[in-house]
Amino acid sequence: MFRSMALQAVARRSISSSAVRQGNKVPHKQKLFQEDNGMPVHLKGGSADALLYRTTMVLTVMGVGYVVYELVKAAYPQKKE
């Protein structure tokens, strides 16, 4: 009984105090993403967004290249001797 009450108290304290410490970042993010600075919205998040974008593009190009390679390989089967 005492353990469950103590666990509930600790959980309640950590949940309520973590919300207070973080603050509200939404207005700042809205201002950042609504600026008209010529950047596409998918890159406005900073260097992490740019890294994710470039990684995605590299993997996409490599995947398309591999698919084309496999299609060409399948179109011209090797001759059996």
TrEMBL record:
Keywords: Acetylation, Membrane, Mitochondrion, Mitochondrion inner membrane, Oxidoreductase, Transit peptide, Transmembrane, Transmembrane helix
Subcellular location: Mitochondrion inner membrane
Main location: mitochondrion
InterPro entries registered for this protein in UniProt: COX7a, Cyt_c_oxidase_su7a_sf, Cytc_oxidase_su7a_met
SUPFAM superfamilies linked: Mitochondrial cytochrome c oxidase subunit VIIa
GO cellular component, one term: respiratory chain complex IV
Family of the protein in this entry: Belongs to the cytochrome c oxidase VIIa family.
Membrane topology: Single-pass membrane protein
Protein name: Cytochrome c oxidase subunit 7A2, mitochondrial
The keyword Mitochondrion appears for this protein: yes
Keyword Transferase among record annotations: no
Membrane spanning residue stretches: 51-72
Biochemical pathway: Energy metabolism; oxidative phosphorylation
